[in-house]
Predict the structure.
Amino acid sequence: VQLQACGGGLVQGGGSLRLSCTVRGSRNSINIWAWYRQAAGKQRELVARISRGDSPDYADFVKDRFIISRDNAATIFSLEMNSLKPEDTAVYYCNAQDRWFKEYWGQGTLVTVSS
């Protein structure tokens, strides 16, 4: 399985961005799709995740602002980010976990929110 993220960039505070992650390879083995982020000098943290058949989970700091989604074929999953804040500035990584609990990571995409 290979993941490729895109969609990062520079945005003003209050603005919106949409990140996408393309999944290649054994897509049908994937059970969990997720987005993480890592700000400079901080640990990587979970932003949102979605499982087969379950409702999405969100970190408290993005609830009601971000939306995670995936297409039915599980070829692309996305993170719609609204009402962005400077503290959302980070490198965002897409992540997938297969039925054997192996994890896969995309290369990361930088999101910068100006004040």
Summary: The chain has no helices and eleven strands.
